[in-house]
Design brief:
The complex is a heterodimer of chains A (457) and B (495).
Chain A: H1 8-21, H2 23-26, H3 33-52, E1 57-58, E2 63-64, H4 67-89, H5 97-116, H6 120-138, H7 145-176, H8 190-206, H9 215-222, H10 225-231, H11 234-250, H12 257-275, H13 282-302, H14 306-333, H15 337-340, H16 343-346, H17 348-362, H18 368-382, H19 386-412, H20 426-444, H21 446-452
Chain B: H1 5-23, H2 29-53, E1 62-70, E2 75-81, H3 83-102, H4 110-129, H5 133-142, H6 144-154, H7 159-188, H8 193-201, H9 207-224, H10 233-240, H11 243-268, H12 270-297, H13 301-322, H14 325-356, H15 367-370, H16 372-386, H17 392-406, H18 412-436, H19 453-471, H20 474-491
Antiparallel strand pairs in B: 1-2
The chains are: A mainly alpha (457), B mainly alpha (495).
């Protein structure tokens, strides 16, 4: 197949976003047509992404798809499609569904580019393309001050992060005389370390990893839970993937990479897991959970080995699926622990699917979360980071405490509000159940996925 | 289908049953219990078949299945049984069926309840059959989830606290096991537990490495056993759990810990095991004496049985770390007998509680005059528990003590204190029997019915096994002995 087919998924997403924006004109009367058509475009793009294969590069090597990139892009597209199906069927009285759908598709487009970017400038642009729509999504409740405050914090920190990244990147480009990632050269000594540190700082902030995590709990708690469900999970796959690319290029050139990333990993795991404990708002809780999981991902990157990077990409998928699923449940049935009380008796299927996803986030086998952690910790210990692996496993056990709090509310609590149960739609429940099934399949049949995550030289 | 596939069927049949049970509509709860009973009955029948065709003279693994699962990470789907694991599998299959029949009157969210019991069975059977470390860990952890829900959704008044404590305690232990497991893999390049046992016994692993891996596994296994001072989750979980869950918790889940020591710590890390044995023996003896002493002080019958478990599991640990043939045979015998006898005790306590809604010893005095059959069975189970010769409890404790005395690694004074523990067990059990069975009839018991036919059927197989193993030791030890001898030869302990 011609190499230009590689970029067809991007084209389909762009078309889908434009269709979604004008959905009410194109499909009169269909209030959710934007979401449904967007889901169809994303699913089609996923199919094209699989069919287009990998191996070729476009635009003078600035854009390339190797098998691992293809996995990251396909996973992003499938999750985007699933999210839009949920949005179409959620039965929420959310105004402006079409804008929401279009923004999601734009963000997803940025994420796709981010995964395939092999050039510093393209990477920066893709990063921005993925983040810009997210600012709007996070501030989607225009009338709510908390939502605006959260979105503003997200915007400011994200801008700072971009600038840090840009600053570091300018050093790297200057030292290597080329904007291609593969051509990056760091000069030995302090200047190389400083450049790498700035690049990493920018990427860490985008990944909501410590020490740049403090924006995420406030931003998430103010934002509509549906926006959090998307922003906190789907773009992270591509984000982690781009991070892994950069690490693969810079790690061989400065010995500081491992210690820097390991320090960020430890801080993320400690802050994320411990700060999640007192939270009663599921959005806040999942924000800290996201920080913690960013820490596990960094354990893989800190190893600087192919196995570690492979495990991190695998884990990014194993994290994104249940994280989105749990937040979708919170978006539909209530974003506080009290609102979820007794969900098991009202919506048993949704509750059990959520329990499965939470247990996977804890890392209980044979689910995706466990398999991912097994690969991550094996890679870490193989390259001598035994103490890092020990902190990571201890923190996994600690994380059980706050995930179990959600399960306790759903299963052991009884609904005392006396309110009529929220009507769920079959489509949105199906998405949550599908996420839960994906967690089982990825966990049990990890071998083909792991085999697909291979990197071109 | 060859006979080796039978093991896979035994493991995953309950999973199919769990799915079917979960899909039973809420309006027909009685269907779920039949699904569960038929699944567990089939599982038991298959297990009996496996036991019948098992070659009792061989020491190695039998009915082995081994196919690659995740080749990139060296993970295999690898099952097999030897004399130790077949004993545990038989116990697990039997108690699984008994747990279902003992839950016959559960109507609250019955489809989910029976699905959880069946899911638990998958994990329990799997742990004893898995020969790949990752598979072993999967089944090990799988057990946590259904037990968490069984305690948390159908438990007593403090069920939320007890279920979370149980989950986090055991998870915290087992994550260290994960680290140990990965370390072994990186050192030897395999997750194959048979190959790892060989590697351990040929001295391929240095003592420094062995020591810290041993510690990692110790944390995982000792929490499950539970060994003093890691036992504090047990009384809470036992007391709050519904009767069937208590039976499986005491009968099977605790044995997973000691099974881990036998299957992993001893053969794979023999040098570290020898070095640590005296210290573990000290903890075992503290468990024996402390469990007995605390059991003495209990006013709640279920708590008394729970603490007696701590004491009995101490004997298992003592037998294992004697690293002798007699001691290990004794350890496995106690594991089996404790599963049967403690299962019986929890069932009787549950049956009495269903009638009286109290477990206070003071409220239950004169049980045998109000319910002669129930009282008699309680006395029988108590005698078996305290180790009366002729009943199953005696064999294992006797052999464990012999083994500990013969052992080259355990000082004699430890064995002497453990023997005193036997007397303590006799004392607290007899005192309980004195108060409950023979005491002045309590008002609470007036006019309550004696054991029903269903209840007698639940207890009958356990009574029969207690007598058979007690009177005819070799019925059990014929299975265990070859595997134990091979293990002792492998770790190079005294014969």
């Amino acid at each position: 197949m011609a190499s230009w087919t590689l970029i067809v998924p991007e084209g389909l997403l762009l078309a889908g976003a434009l269709v979604a924006l004008f959905a009410e004109v194109l499909f009169p009367g269909g209030r959710r047509a934007g979401a449904w058509s967007g889901a169809a475009f994303a699913a089609l793009a996923a199919a094209v992404s699989i069919a287009a294969g990998s191996g070729a590069a476009l635009f003078g090597g600035q854009f390339a798809v190797d098998p691992a990139t293809q996995v990251a892009r396909t996973a992003t597209l499938l999750l985007t499609s699933a999210f839009l199906v949920w949005l179409g069927g959620a039965g929420l009285e959310r105004e402006r569904v079409r804008e929401f759908a279009a923004l999601v598709l734009f963000a997803s487009l940025g994420a796709l580019l981010m995964a395939a970017a092999r050039d510093w400038i393209v990477l920066l642009l893709a990063l921005e393309a993925a983040t810009m729509p997210a600012y709007v999504l996070m501030g989607f409740d225009r009338g709510d001050d908390r939502s605006l405050e959260g979105a503003l914090k997200y915007f400011l920190l994200s801008m700072v992060a971009s600038l840090l990244f840009l600053y570091g990147m300018s050093f790297v480009i200057g030292m290597s005389g080329s904007t291609l990632l593969a051509a990056s050269r760091l000069q030995p000594g302090a200047v190389g370390v400083v450049a790498a540190a700035f690049v990493f700082a920018g990427l860490l902030a985008k990944l909501s990893a410590a020490p740049f995590q403090w924006w995420s709990p406030d931003a998430y708690a103010g934002a509509p839970a549906a926006a959090v469900a998307f922003v906190s999970s789907v773009p992270k796959i591509a984000g982690l993937f781009a991070f892994a690319r950069v690490v693969a290029v810079l790690a061989p050139q400065t010995a500081a990479t491992g210690p820097l990333l390991a320090a960020a990993a430890v801080a993320s795991m400690l802050i994320g897991n411990l700060a999640a404990y007192p939270q009663t708002d599921v959005r806040r809780l999942m924000a800290y959970s996201g920080v913690a999981h960013a820490g596990y991902l960094l354990v893989g990157l800190a190893t600087g080995t192919v196995a570690g990077t492979q495990a991190a990409v695998f884990y990014a998928i194993a994290y994104a699926v249940p994280s989105m699923g749990v937040m979708l449940v919170a978006a539909q049935y209530g974003a506080t622990l009290d609102a979820l009380r007794g969900l098991a008796s009202r919506r048993p299927w949704v509750a059990w699917a959520t329990a499965l996803m939470l247990v996977s986030l804890v890392g209980v086998p044979p689910l995706a979360g466990f398999t991912g952690k097994l690969y991550l910790f094996t890679a870490a210990m193989r390259s001598g980071w035994v103490w890092l692996a020990v902190i990571a496993v201890v923190m996994s056990a600690v994380s059980a405490g706050f995930y179990l709090r959600i399960m306790r509310a759903m299963f052991f609590g009884t609904d005392e509000s006396g309110e009529a149960p929220i009507a769920g739609s079959p489509a949105s429940a199906a998405v949550v159940v599908a996420c839960a099934l994906a967690v089982i399949v990825v966990g049990v049949a990890s071998s083909p996925l792991l085999a697909a995550i291979t990197f071109a030289k | 289908m060859g006979i080796s596939d039978l093991l896979s069927v035994v493991v995953f049949l309950p999973l199919a049953g769990a799915v079917v049970s979960a899909l039973v509509p809420k309006t027909r709860p009685e269907v779920a219990k039949w699904v569960a009973a038929i699944t567990m009955g089939l599982g038991l029948a298959l297990t009996v078949w496996i036991v019948a065709v098992f070659d009792r003279t061989a020491s190695g693994m039998q009915f082995v299945t081994n196919v690659a699962w995740v080749p990139q990470a060296g993970i295999h789907y690898h099952l097999g049984v030897d004399g130790v694991s077949i004993t545990m599998l038989a116990l697990s299959s039997l108690l699984g069926l008994i747990a279902v029949i003992a839950s016959w009157k559960v109507t609250d969210r019955a489809p989910t309840y029976f699905a959880m019991l069946l899911l638990l069975q998958v994990g329990m059977n799997g742990v004893f059959l898995a020969l790949d470390f990752v598979l072993f860990y999967m089944f090990w952890e799988l057990v946590l989830v259904p037990m968490f829900f069984l305690i948390g959704m159908w438990g007593g008044t403090r069920r939320e606290y007890a279920s979370v404590k149980f989950f986090i305690y055991t998870l915290a232990g087992s994550v260290f096991m994960l680290v140990g497991m990965i370390a072994l893999y990186l050192h030897t390049g395999t997750f194959d537990m048979v190959a790892l046992a060989k590697a351990g016994s040929t001295g391929a692993l240095g003592i420094g490495f062995q020591n810290w891996v041993f510690l990692a596994f110790f944390l995982g296994f000792a929490v499950k056993v539970p060994l003093f001072p890691l036992h504090t989750w047990l009384p809470d979980a036992h007391v709050e759990a519904p009767t069937a869950a208590s039976v499986l918790l005491a009968g099977i889940l605790l044995k997973m810990g000691t099974y881990g020591f036998i299957r992993v710590s001893l053969p794979m890390l023999p040098d570290a095991a020898r070095a640590w044995a005296p210290w573990i023996a000290v903890l075992a003896v503290i468990s024996i004496v402390y469990g007995a002493a605390v059991a003495f002080a209990q006013t709640d019958l279920k708590k008394l049985v729970a603490y007696s478990s701590v004491s009995h599991m101490g004997f298992v640990m003592l037998g294992i770390f004697s690293m002798t043939t007699a001691g290990l045979n004794g350890a496995v015998a106690v594991m089996f007998s404790h599963g049967v006898v403690t299962g019986m005790l929890f069932l009787i306590v549950g049956m009495v509680y269903d009638r009286t809604h109290t477990r206070q010893i003071a409220d239950l005095s004169g049980l045998s005059s109000a319910m002669p059959v129930m009282g008699g069975l309680l006395a029988f189970a108590s005698f078996a528990s305290l180790g009366l010769p002729g009943l199953s409890g005696f064999v294992g404790e006797f052999l464990s003590l012999i083994g500990a005395w013969q052992s080259a690694v355990i000082p004699h004074w430890i064995t002497v204190i453990a023997a005193v523990g036997v007397l303590l067990a006799a004392a607290y059990m007899l005192w309980m029997v004195l108060r409950v069975v023979l005491g002045k009839p309590s008002e609470v018991l007036r006019g309550l019915p004696d054991a029903s036919t269903r209840e007698l059927w639940v207890l009958a197989p356990l009574v029969a096994l207690t007598l058979i193993v007690g009177l005819y030791w070799s019925s059990l030890l014929a299975f265990v002995d070859p595997a134990v001898k091979a293990l002792v030869a492998l770790v190079g302990g005294a014969a």
